Structure formats: C-alpha cells, structure tokens
Amino acid sequence: MKNEFSKLKRKIILQITLILLLTIIVGYFIYFALIDGVLQAPFANMFINFCEKVLQLDFYTAQNIYSSIFQLNKPLWLAIGFILLLLVIFYLALSRFTRYFNKISEGVDRLTEESEAEIQLPAELDFMEKKLNTVKSKLEKRAMDAKEAEQRKNDLVVYLAHDIKTPLTSVIGYLSLLDEASDMPMEQKEKYLKITLEKATRLEHLINEFFDITRFNLQSILLEKETINLNYMLMQMADEFYPLLAPNGKQAIVEVEEDLKIDADANKLARVFNNILKNAIAYSYENSIIEISGTRKNEQAIITFTNKGKIIPPQKLDMIFEKFYRLDTSRATQTGGAGLGLAIAKEIVHAHGGSISAESIDEKTVFTVTIPIHS
C-alpha cells in the first residue's frame, strides 16, 4: 500500500511546497513593494488623498494616520497579509486535492453501471484505477454467472417438470391396465409391474432433484465431524455401486493407504464421493476401470477418481462445479441430473477446508479431492 500511494504523496508534497514558496514570494513582494519598497510612495499618496477628499482630513493628520497604521505596524501587516494570502492559496489547493476524491467517487459510482468502458482516474491514482477496474470486472462476472445459473435453473425446472409427466403417465397407464384387466395373465402382470416400478423409481429421482434445487439455496452446510477410515468408506462405496457398474462391464478398484483416517462429516463426505463416482460411471467407457486412490501428503488426505472416457472440453471443465450445470444438456438423458451433484460436492469439500478439482487429458478424467486430516 505504501508503494501504491507514493506517487500521490509525492505530488501532494510537491504541491504544498509550491504553495508555500508562492505564498512567501507574493507576501514579500507585497511587503517590499507596497509598504517598504518602490510602490510605497504611490500607495502612501493614494491613502493620504483618500483621507483628505473622503474623510475631509488635513494633510498632516492624514500623514500621521498613515504613519501610525502602516509604517509603525509593518510586522503586523506582514503577518496579516501572509495569513490571508495563505488562506486563499490553501483554499485553491484544497479544491485541487478534493478533485481526487471526486474522481474516486465517480469511479465507485461507475462500478454499478452496465458499461464495458473502463474506469479512468488521474495518473497519480493509477493504482486505484486498477483496483476499481478489477472490482468492476469481478462484479460483472459474478452478475453474469448468477444470471446464467438462474437461467440454467429455470431451464432445468421446466425440463424436469416436463420429464415428470412421462413416467407419471406410464405409472397411471399401467396401473389402470392392471386394475381393469383382472384376468390378465400372471406373466404379463409381472412385466407391467416391473415397468411401473422402474417408472416410479425414475419419478422419485426427478422429485428428489426438485428438492435438491431448493435445498442447495436454502440449507447451510453444518458439519458433524468424526474420525473416518477412508479405506473402509471407499471400499464400501465401491461395493454399493456394483449394480451400476456390472451391466456395462465396468469396475471400481480402490487403492488407499492403510490406516488413512481423517476428521470429517462421514455422511456429507460420502455424498461427495458418491457424486463423483456417479459422474465417473455415467461418462466412462464400457468395460473400463475406475481407479479410486487415497494418499497422505503434508497432513492432507488426497483422494482421486480416475475414469477412462471422452475428454471433457476445457470450457466445460471450468464449469462442472457450478450449480445447475450438466455436461450432457440433453433433456432425455438418464445420466444428467439437475446439475447439482458436483456443485454440492464442492460446497461440502470447502466447508471441510479442502479443495476439489478436475482435469481431463488423453481420454482420462481425474477428480481430485484434498481434505485436511485433522481439523
């Protein structure tokens, strides 16, 4: 901060020095010219003439008044002259200084303007100009991100509302058939019941996504920490996901350092890992292996999920942790949810004081979660 204000301080000091020099020069000029210099005689004659003509005094009386007022009080008049002159010049200088505050105030006002033009300030305030422009850029980006997120949320609500109709119509249709056709063969009944259950499960999933959309904005993340054995947690999670892995020949292999334990909220951290693994399963190739690893480094637990699949484009990679963003924007996709899984995972990891990131290179996508071992 000292370096940033140095240019402005130098200019202010220079201006104050010039004001003082100007005051001294002008003051001494008046003193030596009017009171005790080349202009003394004309000034004295003018004062005496004024006394004679206006005040109706005689010459000697006027001369005595001039002498007693001016000649005998030269230091007093010099001091009064200096003070008045200094006040006038100081006022003019202060007006110049307040210009800086006016410019800064104008710059702050322009922060809220929807304009692409950059804020411009005097050269000596270039550091403030850079800061204001940086703040302006961040505010514009946040506003744009919020607008895009709101638009994505609105689109998803519309899509989900539309998609709910399809399984709901199927459930009602098949149940109506089962109710109306009491003599329906048992094999056909089982088929219809299976389809109805699948549609009802899909309907439940969509309704849960609606709740997630609301909870994401209204619920604060409160942690209930306990000691967690990451090896056990990740192994158990891989086993639970076997029904999703097996149909497409996929596997989840877990390699975690022995006795790797951390202090964290088990339920919320499990949700983080579940969301990442779901994403890896949804976007990995058939008959591929998803590698889950856990290591310890500098009092941090580093957990990675590596899957082989299509490369995620850089522009999408930067947005996958934003709420309501889906890699697959198709409404009909069974892999795309409300776009909240990774966004919620990010919030939970940050609440633990950790970080989450992703990279996608050479048909490999790696999600990395870093969590402090002790908190």
From TrEMBL:
CDD domains: HisKA
Keywords, ordered alphabetically: ATP-binding, Kinase, Membrane, Nucleotide-binding, Phosphoprotein, Transferase, Transmembrane, Transmembrane helix, Two-component regulatory system
Enzymatic reactions: ATP + protein L-histidine = ADP + protein N-phospho-L-histidine
Gene Ontology cellular component annotations, sorted alphabetically: plasma membrane
Keyword Chloroplast listed: no
PROSITE patterns xrefs: HIS_KIN
Molecular-function GO terms, alphabetical: ATP binding; phosphoprotein phosphatase activity; phosphorelay sensor kinase activity
GO biological process, one term: cellular response to phosphate starvation
Presence of keyword Ligase: no
NCBIfam families: HK_VanS_ACDEFG
Name of this chain's protein: histidine kinase
Source species taxonomy: Bacteria, Bacillati, Bacillota, Bacilli, Bacillales
